[in-house]
Every structure is written in structure tokens, then in C-alpha cells.
Specification:
By secondary structure, the protein is of the alpha/beta class. It has a single domain, classed as 3-Layer(aba) Sandwich (Rossmann fold). 46% of the residues lie in helices and 16% in strands. Strands 3-4-2-1-5-6-7-8 form an eight-stranded mixed beta sheet, sandwiched between helices. The longest helix has 25 residues. The chain is globular and about 50 Å long. It starts with 6 loop residues before the first strand and ends in a 13-residue tail after the last helix.
Amino acid sequence: MPTGQTRVALIASSFYPHIGGVEEHVRQIARELRDLGHEVVVWTVDRGEHLGVRTVDGVTVRYLPTPLPAARAGSLARFARAAPAAWRAWRNAPPADRPDPLHVHRSRPNGVSAAPLAARCHVPVVVTSHGETFMDVQVFEDSALLRTTLRKALAMAAAVTGVSEVVVADLRERFGLVHGAVIGNGVPPAPLEASEPGPGTPDPTLRSVQSAGSNRLKASICCLTHCRRCWGPCHEPDCG
């Protein structure tokens, strides 16, 4: 791989074909990174569709199972049956794609799997919070596993970013974050002209989404460039 280029795994809580802010955000970042010459893969949560491995915009996307335990006996039994195969799927992703960093977006079940995987394979992790700790407050209050995993991920991360000062402040106050950078998740939409936009007129909403990807891309590339010195090869046999 040419000097200065990186192989990045973007680990998203959800992705295409689902539609939403994080889904579009990560999709735009993947495109921008590829345009800059980096290699990109997306690992995301299999939400029951069993999509396997697909290609979206020229990027390999792995839809990985991420069962989580619950307090009910039946749920615990289902988790015990599903967990070994799910962990194998996650464990097999690094040797297949050989990413330099793992970049977790909106830590939910994806973060639960990514954090121990990064530690196991000695791969650096970058964490980007999109406000999930208080926007999904009930989910985090109900799951000690999510809270514990997020704290461990923040402690081991090569870099942590949040989309606003409120997001980063919450990570500091409740999850033990020491450092962290605020990288805005977009820009104000461009003002509309008085007349209705015609064919070919840029959609200001799309412009905002694209700018969000560009802003996050700047943070990602900065982290990758400055943290490369502390990255080591994977020494685990299963990770190649």
C-alpha cells in the first residue's frame, strides 16, 4: 500500500439498506476515503436480514451478527446458542480485510463486538459518538454490558471524537473519557433562493450530509496520520 494510505474498517451500528443519519454519514465517509485513495470496508450489525457480504458504492460491507444477552432466561438461552457463531464471524473479519484501525460509529452492539476484537488483534480503535449515550438513554441504562464496553473502548481508543460538545461532555461525565475532540456533524444548510429550486439545483440537506462526511473525514485522517506510530501488527494467530 502506498505511503500515507490506510485500510480502514468503519464499524457502524446500522448501514444501508437502512436509512438514517448514521447510515448516510458512514456511507459518505467511505466514499470520501476511497476518493482519497484509502481502502475501506464497513462492518455493520446484521439486523436479522442475513445480508452476508455485499458491495455498496464499491465498498465491501459485512453484515455481522451481534446478539446481546438479556436478563430473561429465554433470552439468555438464545444468546448462549447464538454467541459462538457471532463471535467467529467478527473474529474472521480482521484476517479477511486486514484493517489498520477500527473506527466505531455510534457504539451499540457494534461497539460491544469491536472493542474486544481490537484488543485481541492489537489493532487501534477510534470511537466516534453520535449522541447515542443520551439519545438512546434507556438502552444504556438497561444494559450494563453496553456501558462497560463503551468505557473500555474509550479508555483504549487511539482517538475519541463526538459530534458536539454536549456529546463529548456526556462521555466525560458518565463514561470516564479523559480526552476527546469535537468534530461537528455537519454545517448549516445553504440558504434557498426565493424561487423554487429547479432541476440540477443542489439540495441543501444533501449538502449538509456531504459536509458532515467531509468533517468527519478530516478527523479520521488526522487520527490515522498521528496515531500510526502506535499501531502494531496483529500478533494473534487467528488474525493472520
